[in-house]
Amino acid sequence: MKKLVLTVMLAMIVLASTGCKQRKVQQKVRRYGMVIGVKEEKLDEYKKLHAAVWPGVLKTIKDCKIRNYSIYLYQLDDGNYYLFSYFEYTGDDFKADMDKMAADPVTQRWWELCEPCQIPLSNRKEGEWWASMEEVFHLN
Amino acid sequence: MKKLVLTVMLAMIVLASTGCKQRKVQQKVRRYGMVIGVKEEKLDEYKKLHAAVWPGVLKTIKDCKIRNYSIYLYQLDDGNYYLFSYFEYTGDDFKADMDKMAADPVTQRWWELCEPCQIPLSNRKEGEWWASMEEVFHLN
After folding, report:
1. Chain A contacts of B53, Cβ < 8 Å?
2. Would the CB atoms of A74 and B35 count as touching at under 8 Å?
3. B25 CB near a chain A CB, below 8 Å?
4. Is residue B75, in this structure, part of any structural domain at all?
5. Can you give the residue range of the structural domain that contains A126?
6. Beta carbons within 8 Å of B109's beta carbon, 6+ residues apart
7. CB-CB neighbours of B83 under 10 Å
8. How far apart are the C-alpha atoms of A130 and A28, rounded to whole Å?
9. Among A34, A63, A115, B37, which is disulfide-ready with B119 (CB 3.0 to 4.6 Å)?
């Protein structure tokens, strides 16, 4: 009986420490920085939309393995407003997950509201809406 | 003797699970998105510098409780190049930690090389070099 108790406790210690390690392993991610223009006359609408993003949209983002997703706004010296996003992708097939996101009807209705607020950049890559930027530095 | 063993093991289980919780608590951070211009003729120099940032500079950044720090580069439709940074601050007094960073001699020598590459934005807040942007959305 004592042996059983000792065995169970040892197992609990191993499981507890393994749980911690797994959380550490999950820190390995691919980072993305994106940029797009936003229309001055649509600033309020865009902010209101993003102050209360639909739960179905948030769920799809998480289902597509995107985490730690932030969007920032700033007016640059050309007088125009721009949105900058940073997010982390924890999956193994970014294109497949983005195709899955694009196929979600709720996300499609959400984009129908957001896209008229935005001005995509002329030098974005083929197939992009937001333009993906070049990472020149990272420190964990 | 058996009781002692059981007590030690229970303590180990508690400590292990507490370790996990602490890692979770540390997820609470303040996020910063910053932007600044970069001179086209200084792009290569800026990229080379940031491909091999001095260890002393990296140590000071970490000592000042900055983590997950990325810098992105993109040419916008006005033809100018911009740098966008995202980082997370895990301390309790951002100004104090930034003052500590600014007081570090190695960091000061580093900034003497980086700042001539950059064009700070005219509408940045008082005391800023990089301009801090407005966060309009975040999803953990």
Report:
1. 137, 139
2. yes
3. no
4. yes
5. 30-132
6. none
7. 24
8. 24
9. B37
Query: Is A52 part of any domain?
Result: yes
Output B100 or A8, whichever has higher pLDDT: B100
- Mean pLDDT for the stretch of residues B114-139: 98
Closest to B30 measured CA to CA, from B88, B70, B96: B88
Instruction: Domain count for chain B, please give it.
Output: 1
Residue count of chain A: 140
Residue B35 has φ and ψ, to the nearest 5°, of: -140, 150
* Average pLDDT score over chain B: 89
Cβ distance B113 to B123 under 8 Å? no
Residue B63 in domain: yes
Q: What is the CATH number of the domain that holds B45?
A: 3.30.70.100
| In chain B, alpha helices (H) | 2-25, 43-51, 55-63, 94-102, 105-114
pTM, rounded to two decimals: 0.83
User: How far is residue A127's CA from residue A130's CA, in Å, rounded to a whole number?
Assistant: 9
In a domain, B80, yes or no: yes
Facing A71 at nearest CB: one of B58, B75, B136: B136
Residue of chain B whose Cα is closest to the Cα of A32: B72
